[in-house]
Amino acid sequence: MPRALITGVTGQDGAYLSQLLLEKGYEVFGMARRTSTGGFQDGRLRWLGIVDRVRIVDGDLTDLSSMLRLMKDIEPDEVYNLGAQSFVGTSWHQPLLTAQVTALGVTNILEAVRVMRPQARFYQASSSEMYGLIQEAHQSEKTPFYPRSPYAVAKLYGHWITVNYRESFGLHASSGILFNHESPLRGIEFVTRKVTDAAARIKLGLAQKLPLGNIDAKRDWGHARDYVRAMWLMLQQDQGEDYVVATGRTTTVRDMCEIAFRHVGLNLDDHLFIDPDLFRPAEVDVLLGDPAKAHSKLGWQADTTLESMITEMVDADLERLRSRRV
Ligand code: NDP
Ligand code: GDP
User: Which among 25, 70, 94, 325 is most buried, taking Cβ atoms within 10 Å?
Assistant: First the structure.
């Protein structure tokens, strides 16, 4: 039975990746942070019905000693580093924490792999935010980076230290440059989930308005369930490499909202208002990925359209609100 260690197991991708690896017969160890309320943030694993099948181990990416201990005790075959301060907006409010977790945390876990478990295969959760002020219309593995937030700067460090450990120490280390991916388990602070939750609340008479910032921004949105499959495929290759994972289609925030509101029979313009406080200090105007390498080398492609993902999210939010699982 292969063993996988996942950091960020309580997050969106950690939950879907755990589900995929359990289906494939892995023993899944998920690293989670202690909370003062006891236990850990288990809501997403519960939602997928797998909370009892993931072996939760405690640790924190900023704590090298916990990384070393986990590599020694678990002896994983595959390590997926999904843990991060992952929200761009928060990274301007907490830039140092973002650097410590999202950037230096990657070196902590790579060091632990190098010292304790160099034969393990390693996945780093890199981000399309690294392209920021885009240098090419379609962003591929060869497109130069231009990060536009403390989050993106931290992710760029994580990306290059992964490349460097592969080249310096021969680790099987891959960096997945994933474009935005969403699901019913997406954090409520991200724009898709904020919108699908608002559409559901307004439909049920629980809210009236949807405040948003820059609705002209464009993103290449896919479904997290499809994207965790790409992570696993990367670690099944003979060599560690870097891959762009994207749909190859870009859509404005406004058009994404239209899909959500239309699904519940609401007119978006009756509810949307622009809140200047929600604009960011520096914006990423457009992202559009070129997933050709993932197609040809991994045999991967995005199976879920934006329309079916957004309607799935609205339906899940309606169900949550109706059953008071908010
Ligand atoms: P989430 O925000 O849902 O999950 C982040 C996870 O990181 C949570 O489990 C969180 O734990 C954990 N975490 C935060 N701080 C620490 C820490 N100090 N030590 C250990 N774990 C920590 O993110 P996603 O699941 O959406 O994304 C997974 C990864 O992929 C992230 O690295 C993200 O930056 C990256 N990414 C995501 C994209 C997307 O569109 N979703 C696009 C490209 C990259 P807790 O529950 O305790 O807070
Ligand atoms: P990001 O691409 O990782 O920053 O993902 P987000 O979902 O947080 O944001 C996607 C885009 O939506 C960005 O260009 C934001 O500026 C834009 N956006 C507009 N209004 C909002 C809002 O109210 N919340 C968030 N999170 N993003 C918004």
Answer: 70
Q: For residue 295, is it within any domain?
A: no
pLDDT band at 259 (very low <50, low <70, confident <90, very high): very high
DSSP states along 191-232: HHHHHHHHHHHHHTTS---EEES-TT-EE--EEHHHHHHHHH
Residues 279 and 210 in one domain: yes
In tens, the pLDDT along 11-66 reads 999 999 999 999 999 999 999 998 888 778 899 999 999 999 999 999 999 999 99
Residues 192 and 279 in one domain: yes
Q: Whose structure tokens read 């017969």? A: 25
Q: Which residues line ligand 2 (CB under 6 A)?
A: 88-89, 129, 180, 189-191, 194, 212-215, 217, 219, 253, 278, 280, 283-284
CA-213 nearest atom, ligand 2: 20
Question: Do both 134 and 200 map to the same domain?
Answer: no
What is the CA(73)–ligand 2 centre distance, in A?
A: 39
Q: pTM to 2 decimals?
A: 0.98
Give the residue among 82, 78, 75 at the shortest CA–CA distance from 26.
Answer: 78
Atom of ligand 2 lying closest to residue 253 CA: 12
What's the gap in Å between 191 CA and the centre of ligand 2?
A: 5
Domain that includes residue 215, residue range: 188-219+250-286+304-325
